[in-house]
């Protein structure tokens, strides 16, 4: 089985997409992450859903989970408002990470190794200089376990 056999159409966002819109896309389509494309439509990075949470959850709550418990429920339920007014560009890590991108001929093991190494729940598949879609962790596991 190759990447081309597992690739599905996948929504993308740009660097200028508002973060709250990106979060809505994640939620509305039940996605594990988003592919961020550049002005030429090529993958620039993958933004995992957990990274979106990391950006929205106050740092003090991440550092000390006990502090998250003392925040009243009304404020706790509104933590995603921290994303308001921010773009995807502003929320990306300063240090570029390895881009989880492969070609259509990659094997299942190559894709799994790339996901594990980059800690990405999806891998962008690029062929002929254009984005063909993505392989998600769920699709990879479903197909690999069915074999």
Automatic annotation (TrEMBL):
Pfam families: CBS
Domain of life: Bacteria
Swiss-Prot/TrEMBL keywords: CBS domain
Domain CBS residues, every copy: 6-67
Record-given protein name: CBS domain-containing protein
């Amino acid at each position: 089985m190759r990447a081309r056999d597992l690739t599905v159409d996948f929504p993308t966002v740009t660097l200028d997409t508002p973060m709250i819109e990106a979060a809505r896309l994640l939620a509305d389509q039940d996605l594990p992450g988003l592919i961020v494309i550049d002005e030429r439509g090529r993958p620039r990075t993958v933004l995992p859903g957990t990274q979106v949470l990391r950006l929205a959850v106050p740092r003090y709550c991440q550092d000390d989970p006990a502090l998250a418990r003392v925040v009243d429920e009304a404020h706790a339920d509104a933590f995603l408002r921290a994303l308001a007014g921010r773009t995807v560009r502003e929320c990306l890590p300063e240090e570029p990470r390895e881009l989880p991108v492969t070609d259509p001929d990659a094997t299942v093991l190559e894709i799994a190794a790339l996901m594990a190494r980059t800690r990405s729940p999806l891998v962008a598949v690029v062929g002929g200089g254009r984005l063909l879609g993505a392989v998600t962790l769920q699709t990879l596991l479903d197909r690999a376990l069915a074999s």
